[in-house]
Sequence to fold (213 residues):
Amino acid sequence: MKRGRFITFEGGEGGGKSTQLRRLAERLGDAGHDVIATREPGGSPGAEAIRALLVQGEADRWSPVTETLLMYAARRDHIERVIAPGLARGAWVLCDRYADSTRAYQGAGGGTDPALIAALEAHVLAGVTPDLTLILDLPPEVGLARAAARAGAETRFESKGLAFHTKLREGFLGIAAAEPNRCEIIDATAPLEAVEAAVWAAARRRLGLSDHG
Ligand SMILES: Nc1ncnc2c1ncn2[C@@H]1O[C@H](COP(=O)(O)OP(=O)(O)OP(=O)(O)O)[C@@H](O)[C@H]1O
Ligand SMILES: [Mg+2]
Fold:
């Protein structure tokens, strides 16, 4: 069977990743594709348990290296149990955050040595890299204000301060510049419907979908 497609949604807080992922999943599902919508950190029972350690509690709960290793432990479980089997059965796997978030949050933002992150990518991802990465870009002030409107316990990264979030944005834009064949920057300050149209256009153009998917 033909391997499925792997699409990741990336960017800082409140850019609309979860909203747009849901919409794209619906659209692809309506077009008859087998779709798996998942997220990181998490996406499998073991990885969701690790997620709670990562997204709750004090901002400085983990050192950047510890945080990187926890992210990759969760990611490996998610790949083994959900992403790789999904792609093998021919599904379209849509993932809310993936390896680029580690480059941006633990690397650009946290200061983890890029060589460690590159080694983890080489050894742990097992070649499971996205066909398309949509980077929802917006000023961190705007994204943090949107994210703050939602209540909840998962505020550890949001609480890290504007300087951190500014570095993240630069990190994501740097990834897009370095890997233009994989990455598409989407202007996330546009209205929801316009962002949805841009996501759909990118998926169509880059993955060869027809008008109807
Ligand atoms: N284009 C948009 N314009 C205005 N508001 C938006 C837009 N897209 C999403 N929102 C709103 O912003 C909030 C954050 O959206 P969403 O949860 O999809 O973002 P996210 O990128 O998944 O955030 P997080 O990084 O915190 O998970 C939601 O209340 C959503 O309705
Ligand atoms: Mg989200």
The helical segments are 17-30, 45-55, 64-88, 99-109, 114-124, 140-148, 162-178, 192-207.
